[in-house]
Amino acid sequence: MNTSENYNLDDLLRKSIKKTPLTEPSANFTTDVMRQINSLSISKSTKYEPLISIKTWLFIVVSISVLIALILYSQGYENSNWISLILTKSNINSILLGLSFKFTLSRIFVYGFICFALMFFIQISMIKYYFDKSLRH
Amino acid sequence: MKNTDDQHIIDLVKKGHIQSYSILVDRYKNMIYSLCFKMIKNKEEAEEAAQDSFIKAFKNIDKFKNESKFSTWLYKVAYNTCLDSLKKINKTQHVELVESYASNHYKREDSIAGFLADDLQEQIIQNCLSQLPGDENLIITLFYFEELSIEEISEIINLKPNNIKVKLHRIRKKLALLLKDKLESNYEYLRKL
Description:
The complex is a heterodimer.
Chain A: H1 3-19, H2 29-45, H3 54-73, H4 82-89, H5 107-136
Chain B: H1 2-14, H2 21-40, H3 43-59, H4 70-89, H5 95-104, H6 118-130, H7 134-145, H8 150-157, H9 161-192
């Protein structure tokens, strides 16, 4: 094809193709697409998420650590000093370079803490069971 | 104007206004369906591929960074969806027919455009276009109908701009031969009347 023919064909194609209407899909095309997209977003919203999020777990761990640290460095009502004894026995105390663990703990606190922990885990499992059951319907 | 408008709708969709996406679907459904139909050459499968393209685009809308036009990005999604769809269908297109035709009639290139009457032009050209393989038909449509640049087409179908130029030249040659053949058969038919 020489240049002028090439140009003619180019021009002809441009004009003719531009004039041609586009093929149309079915009338409910948009509705079908949007229905599928909506069902996608619904399934996204019912996606499983843990009952206690990572942030909450982090908060719990930090809180408990802070609590333990406070207990370790504070004076309690009883002079049991048992942590200090354990540390001395296992020879860890020497590693901790003179940190004195005058750790005292009231029995009421210990019982209370154990009860709280037990109830906490029982409640978590019960709540999880309840949510699992309700989501199944 | 259309691009900034697209961007506004995309921002809304990204913020969670899912229903706004229907504006984009309405705006591009004809073009996307046409491209899919040209590639797949089957109405039902083209419609399914077009729907899949819009759904894929929605799922990946966060990946659209406004580096190109939304339409170019969407055409690329549609092109890849059609390729996947064709792989599934394992459809053999009529490539061989056109290729052999072109090689046999390579020297019969006289002037064509002048012979075509306006009322016949559209019909004959459409007929010739439908005989091209899907990807070539797509390139022609993007270049002449959508008036995309060579660079934009190369972005859509993952080929270098130079390859697109060569492809366009070859497609034009093929079309010239097909048009000439159609013209001759029409001329014979009219003469017999």
